[in-house]
Design a protein that fits this description.
Blueprint (H helix, E strand, L loop, with lengths): L10 H4 L6 H13 L2 H21 L6 H8 L9 H10 L5 H18 L10 H7 L10 E4 L5 E4 L5 H25 L10
Antiparallel strand pairs: 1-2
Helix pairs in contact: 2-3, 3-5, 3-6, 3-8, 5-6, 6-8
Length: 192
């Protein structure tokens, strides 16, 4: 039971939790070791989280306003699609990167919204993934917070490998943009 003055936590709140460094490693491991459906959905979720962080790094610092833009029931930037559009519009990335984000979104939507078994060997998934940038190096090693390295040796289909690789690249590029703009943010009172 929620205490007086505190909003009761809901399932909707879970979708708003940011991807922290504490859980990022576990999510990245899941991208490689879990099912194709899990990889498609979780890969997109972590890219989406990085995109929110990158977009917000360009906005005025105002937590209540931020909440209304991204997470309220009528938020204009509630969907991944709208976030991709605004990221492009404010110059976070160019048309090729926007295209990569849209392919990741399309693949995620296919896995998330079908009840039938689906994997990265399906011809429609393959056709979508063909437009993703090619994999340069498929060997992945993740260093966990405790300093231990985890090598990913799961055999992935070439199309899942390409999807996961592009998720990693998008996350890295979006974090780079977030860090670049982090020190350049202004506060709302600066504008008064």
């Amino acid at each position: 039971m929620a205490s007086k003055g505190r909003k009761k936590e809901t399932l909707y709140d879970l979708s708003r939790l940011p991807v922290t460094k504490e859980v990022e490693g576990a999510i990245l491991v899941d991208l490689i070791t879990e099912s194709d459906r899990s990889a498609a959905i979780n890969g997109c979720a972590i890219v989406d989280s990085a995109l929110v962080k990158a977009i917000s790094s360009r906005f005025v610092e105002d937590d209540d306003f931020f909440e209304s833009l991204f997470y309220s029931q009528t938020a204009p930037l509630q969907s991944f699609s709208s976030r991709i559009k605004i990221g492009y519009a404010i110059g976070l990335y160019g048309p090729q990167f926007r295209n990569t984000l849209n392919i990741i979104r399309n693949v995620r939507n296919a896995f998330a919204h079908t009840a039938v078994p689906l994997d990265f060997r399906h011809h429609l998934v393959i056709n979508e993934c063909k437009d993703l940038p090619a994999v340069l190096k498929a060997e992945v090693t993740i260093t966990m917070d405790d300093g231990k390295s985890v090598e990913m040796k799961r055999k992935m289909t070439p199309w899942r490998e390409r999807y996961v690789y592009n998720c990693f690249v998008c996350i890295a590029k979006l974090e780079e943009r977030s860090n670049y703009y982090a020190n350049k943010r202004i506060t709302a009172d600066f504008l008064d």
